[in-house]
Amino acid sequence: MDNCNKTLLIILTLLITFQRATCTQETCREGRRNDERYLLYDVNPGEGFNLRRDVYIRVANLIRKLNDVDNWVLVLPPWGNLYHWQNVRPGLYVPWKNFFDVESLNKWIPVTEFNDYLKTEGATVGSTYVLQNYAEGWGGKWEEKYDKRPCIERHNFEQRDDGSWSGQMWATKVKTDNFTCLSIQGQAATLLPLIQRDLTSRSVFIGRAETILHDEYGGKWYWAARRSMRFARHLREEATRFRRDYLGSDDKQDKTEVKDDWRDTKPKRGAAVGGPYIAVHLRRKDFVRARGDEVPSLKKAAQQIKKLLQNENLTSVFIATDAPVMELQELESLLPGYKVVHYKPSTDFLHKWGDGGVAIVDQIICTHARLFTGSYESTFSFRIQEEREILGFEERRTFNRLCGKKSNCDQPAKWRIIY
Fold first, then answer.
1. Number of alpha helices (DSSP H) and beta strands (DSSP E) in the chain
2. Which residue, 305, 281, 286, is CA-closest to 359?
3. Which of 47, 238, 386, 387 does the annotation list as catalytic?
4. Would you say 100 and 56 are in contact if contact means Cβ atoms under 8 Å apart?
5. 8 lies in a domain?
6. What is the pLDDT of residues 31-56, one digit of tens each?
7. Which residues form the signal peptide (predicted)?
8. What CATH number corresponds to the domain at position 51?
């Protein structure tokens, strides 16, 4: 090899090395590297879909901080049979790609599906930490801390004869070398020292991750992670079809068009107009029992909906609700002269995407309405408000809720988007 070729080879090697060294979570995600480490997490089985989405943001920004030093990949926990999902077989778990655009998530932090992790690493995890609160409580003093403590609640891990542990993770029996119950009070970043000191484990599992708090709820890092959580294309297309066919709504006339890359979408406040309908999330079932004073009767809900339609000079309302069919029919009878629309999936759609897919289509349709009003302390409503912030709706058309027994009730806090 002559000197010229040697020089070119050296330059090429340096360029490749520099590219790898400067590759960040926002600029590249091509292929796997040998030094990758994996963070797995799970949430209390009783938590619903929309709370789990919030926990994802907490853990995603923990990965962001870990990647300031190392090369971590977040393993996405499969979706099982959640409380409101009646059409998922027990023991069946579905991947995130069924509901979310995983490529979009990867533009914020490196992520992978659990099934892909099993193919790469096998059914093993280096260290397992199950989070819990302190048995004695906070003691009236707030401080970020964690301690290894005896387990307070039941867990599904057991120690083997060789000293290792095994347990069920999403219908898969997994071996873990180290198992610890960890009492903690603090934010996601409180776990940084624990994970960074665990130098021997290629993978770490965090159980009951809802125990940790956001590092900065509503800050720019929160919103970056939230904006990356775009829904899967097949669900967006289904919602687009429904809006066009039943509500006379499309992105161009509604001024809700977005760029292909979420990082390029930063609309000004008030840019979005929305379709010619209002959307209402009417929470029923257990909310009627648990929050009776804050949940309106069907008659009172109809009165409020009618007033909103008159104020907006509209005649169509889309209802997203967990109410039984009879209640939905009663509500419609209380709104004579108005078009009451409710999404009912086809058998094929329900078979493919389940109740989770149906809920997301409901949320997308609500997101694109001229005005939205939700239910008291509902995470379903919160997520819609966030989606409308991302699209650039006016605050007065987003942060609303139905009142219960009181004629005038406190409206939701305005968590405004930050770039």
1. 13, 13
2. 281
3. 47
4. no
5. no
6. 445 689 999 999 998 899 999 999 99
7. 1-23
8. 3.40.50.11340
- Domain ends where: 199, 221, 243? 221
- Provide φ and ψ at 55, rounded to 5°: -65, -35
Spatial neighbors of 165 by CB under 8 A, at least 6 apart, are 128, 157, 158, 159, 175, 176, 177, 178, 179
Name the residue type at position 89: R
Cα–Cα distance, 34 to 40 (Å, whole number)? 18
Asked if 353 and 88 count as a contact pair (C-beta separation under 8 A), the reply is no
Show the domain range for 213. Answer: 25-221
Q: Report if pTM > 0.85.
A: yes
- The amino acid that residue 287 corresponds to is F
What are all long-range contacts of 343-347, with beta carbons under 8 Å and residues at least 24 apart? 343/242, 343/318
Q: 47 an active-site residue? A: yes
Give me the sign of the Cα torsion angle 185, 189, 190, 191.
positive
Other beta carbons within 10 angstroms of residue 103's beta carbon come to 14
Give the CA diameter of the chain: 87
Residue 108 corresponds to which tokens in the numbers above? 């914020």
β-bridge partners, 79: 94
Total domains in the chain come to 2
Is the domain of 328 the same as that of 184?
A: no
Place of tokens 């960890």: 182
Residues with Cβ within 8 Å of residue 402, at least 6 apart in sequence: 280, 282, 295, 296, 301, 304, 373, 374, 375, 376
Q: Determine the pLDDT at residue 46.
A: 86
Please give the structure tokens belonging to residue 139.
């003691």
Please answer whether residues 309 and 278 qualify as being in contact, where contact means their C-beta atoms are separated by less than 8 angstroms. yes
Flag residues of the chain having pLDDT under 50: 5-32
Return the sign of the alpha-carbon dihedral for residues 214, 216, 218, 222: negative
Phi, psi (deg, nearest 5) at residue 166 = -140, 150
CATH number at residue 279: 3.40.50.11350
Smallest Cα–Cα separation from 133: which of 146, 114, 124, 117? 146
Confidence at residue 28, expressed as pLDDT on a 0 to 100 scale: 39
